[in-house]
Amino acid sequence: MTPNRKMPPRRKRILEFIQTFIEDNGLPPTVRDIQKACEISSTSVVDYNLRLLDRDGYLNRRPDVARGIELLDDSGQPLNSVPKVQIVGRIAAGAPLPAFSTEGNAASQEFDTIEVAPELPRKFGKLYGLEVQGLSMIDALIDDGDVVIIQPAQQAENGEMVVAWLKEEEEATLKKFYPEGSQVRLQPANSQMEPIYCSTDNVEIRGKVVSVIRKF
Amino acid sequence: MTPNRKMPPRRKRILEFIQTFIEDNGLPPTVRDIQKACEISSTSVVDYNLRLLDRDGYLNRRPDVARGIELLDDSGQPLNSVPKVQIVGRIAAGAPLPAFSTEGNAASQEFDTIEVAPELPRKFGKLYGLEVQGLSMIDALIDDGDVVIIQPAQQAENGEMVVAWLKEEEEATLKKFYPEGSQVRLQPANSQMEPIYCSTDNVEIRGKVVSVIRKF
DNA sequence: GTGTCATAAGAACAAAAGTTTTACAGGTGA
DNA sequence: TCACCTGTAAAACTTTTGTTCTTATGACAC
Lengths: 216, 216
Fold this sequence. Notes:
Two copies of one chain form a homodimer. By secondary structure, chain A is of the alpha+beta class. Helices cover 20% and strands 31% of the residues of chain A. Chain A has helices at 9-25, 31-37, 43-55, 119-124; strands spanning 59-61, 69-71, 84-91, 112-115, 128-132, 147-152, 161-166, 171-180, 183-187, 196-199, 203-215. In chain A, strand 7 (161-166) and strand 8 (171-180) form a beta hairpin. Strand 11 of chain A pairs antiparallel with strand 11 (203-215) of chain B. Chain A binds a DNA duplex (30 and 30 nucleotides) through helix 3.
């Protein structure tokens, strides 16, 4: 979705209009809606630009379907359908992390899903969810049953909340990540709790936490 | 959205199909899509039923617009646009609750908004958000900056998480609500913390918490 | 200059999709 | 029985909307 370097201004404007239109109206615009909004003299010009945006992977056009434009995210996934994130497993201190790779193929495996704000897949691309089991994450202010939304990652910036795997302890945990030389400080979200220090070698980042959702 | 008692089965089927179609395809169906899916012999019958559903407040039809069906929730609000919830203010222990009523009219007041899962407005209707300020809610496992999504309510069931206003203390708090005779027990979400007991007279329920969202 | 390519324009065409018109069957109450 | 209402039906009509055809312009290479 993020417009490439040097996308022609007209095409950029079209793309932005489509997104705004969908948000405002709950359905995609017609070619003529775009024509008027972007001050284009002919529908054929809109069609031409849409075809290029389609070719370059910014959107999908269903042929012969009125308002058949579908915006795609960075990884080519549809964007305007209801955003559901797969809950690929549970996380608990001491428990092994569920396999993120698709070892059993998706067809054979039934996943629970959770609906998230459309904003999240739009901003972060492909995501997955983990249900927190027990009170093992309570120092990160995360309760039993909360779902953490994770963006897969192998590295993290200073201060980001990450899914960290402690190799020696064989323990998964959610903490804020602070590299400090050859050591890593893992800081709970709860300021009343003490941080964990361990060697860089012993920590593996599995993903970044982009949101925590608690339902009642 | 919840179909009334005694909604004709055909109309119920149409309504359910529209919702499924939007979720699956990201845009509303045409009259003929509905016709085929619900095995109706004529488009005019679909049109007839859609007009009744419109009249009864289940949906909105934009005249002369292809796929111009818009589903409405229980309170008559649009449902298929990106669900944004207004953050009407901040909540902190000891601070007065923001005015929920529209005293200053909406036009004059700029609200922040937060995107939520489409599921929430669908299930709970009109919602608002409160941003938690400071660590006053930490015993409910809620951090500074978290947003709680609230369904307005004056009463609550046993065990529900509520926004409670303690009159004497002039204090707002998020707790689980347990009426116990003439007393009320307000239990933090964090099992390591102690509950608060106070008299029924001193507690005012302002709303129920339906979700907590934490972003990074 | 000449050819090519990306972009834009105007007009017309064809398919999709909303709307209307007329008709009919079953039930209800005067 | 008759008017009346709800629900269904078939076909035709009109508007909306996707698509195509032809032409034009400026940039660039040869």
